[in-house]
Design brief:
Blueprint (H helix, E strand, L loop, with lengths): L1 H26 L4 E17 L2 E16 L22 H30 L1 E3 L3 E4 L4 H4 L7 E5 L2 E2 L3 H9 L5 E7 L2 E7 L2 E6 L5 E6 L2 E3 L3 E3 L4 H28 L10 H14 L1 H19 L7 H14 L5 H32 L2
Antiparallel strand pairs: 1-2, 3-12, 4-11, 5-6, 5-7, 7-8, 9-10
Helix pairs in contact: 1-2, 1-6, 2-5, 2-7, 2-8, 5-7, 6-7
Length: 352
């Protein structure tokens, strides 16, 4: 069941990505020969409005084959008003960007659905208070509930951290304890901490940790839209930074996951709850959008790079250079896929 869920989710994400390319291409009058979910041998095909819609044997991706554009033949040139070749560079960029944009849009829709169904978050309830910390010295106790900091209402645990980090000086905490509202003034101190990439940083802290209590967020339609937007931006930023840290060597290459890891994560999420499955699907959708925008030839970002070059220089890269860079891009992608699979296999044996 987990494998079926994984294939369905992946096919759905690929379909949405390619639908973005397809929609933009047709908007600019480019003929689309094939819309394929999967690679390799054709399993099912149906022609509709001049496009062959097909399912292929290897369900780990997909493609839209446009007139005048073929990754397997980068030097392909086809004439006519309905050819990708004859479109202006900015139009080609829009067609290329439409795929990743569709992934970001899908993620936002999924996050919005989560908000409507019932998003949850850590409650602003204190689990432990570190000895001799600012909170300890101010008299904060276990099970205290933080309801306001200065003039900011607090509903989730994350809002506490944001308020502490994004302000200066002492803060006035309003605590609910045994049904009573208590005010405490706390002066955060700068402490050693680690960010999500395990880098050492300095951070304003008061020495408390959450109780682990989960609350369901009661969001209006407008608040759900804001929730979806913020979650999509946060996920996109996190993945962009993750790629940057990987290139810098901050994140070891052993952390790169492949299709096996993705499948396991989706399978586990599907067995947990619909909210968990939607959350993972949204995150993977953002991941696909970000990775496809990397300036690697053979990816959308690489093709966008070529078109930006053409816009600036008023000429296309030579066929030889274009071919060499595209092949190099495929080699890079192949190496990353093999690295992911290698790490997946290592994890299986290490974890038994």
């Amino acid at each position: 069941m987990g494998t079926i869920t994984f294939l369905l989710v992946l096919s759905f994400l690929v379909f949405f990505h390619e639908l973005g390319h397809f929609t933009a291409a047709r908007y600019f009058g480019v003929k689309v020969h094939v819309f394929s979910i999967g690679f390799g041998k054709q399993l099912f095909a149906k022609e509709w409005k001049g496009t062959v819609w097909q399912l292929s044997l290897i369900p780990l991706g997909g493609y839209v084959k446009m007139k005048g554009q073929d990754d397997s033949n980068p030097a392909l040139v086809e004439s006519g008003d309905d050819s990708y070749n004859t479109k202006q560079p900015w139009q080609r960029i829009v067609i290329l960007f439409a795929g990743p944009f569709a992934n970001f849009l899908l993620a936002a829709i999924l996050y919005f659905s989560i908000a409507i169904i019932g998003a949850s978050a850590l409650a602003p309830s204190i689990g432990t208070v570190q000895a001799n910390s600012p909170a300890f010295k101010a008299g904060i106790q276990k099970n205290d509930e933080i309801v306001r900091i200065n003039n900011t209402e607090i509903t989730t645990w994350n809002e506490i951290g944001e308020e502490i980090v994004n302000t200066q000086g002492a803060l006035k905490f309003y605590i609910k304890r045994d049904g009573k509202l208590i005010a405490k003034t706390i002066s955060p101190h700068i402490s050693d901490a680690q960010n999500m990439f395990k880098e050492d940083i300095k951070k304003r802290m008061i020495g408390i940790s959450p109780s682990g209590k989960i609350i369901k967020l009661d969001l209006s339609f407008g608040e759900s839209l804001v929730f979806a937007y913020e979650k999509t931006i946060f996920a996109s930023t996190m993945i962009f930074q993750g790629v940057q840290k990987l290139i810098q060597g901050v994140i070891p290459s052993s952390e790169v996951g492949g299709v096996i890891t993705i499948g396991k994560v989706i399978s586990d999420a599907s067995e947990s709850s619909i909210i968990a499955l939607l959350t993972i699907t949204a995150l993977i959708s953002v991941n696909l959008g970000v990775l496809n925008l990397l300036p690697i030839p053979a990816l959308d970002g690489g093709h966008i790079m070529f078109n930006i070059y053409e816009m600036i220089t008023k000429r296309k890269p030579s066929d030889k250079v274009f071919m060499i860079l595209t092949i190099t891009g495929w080699v890079i992608l192949g190496a990353l896929m093999l690295l992911g699979i290698y790490n997946d296999i290592n994890r299986i044996f290490i974890n038994g």
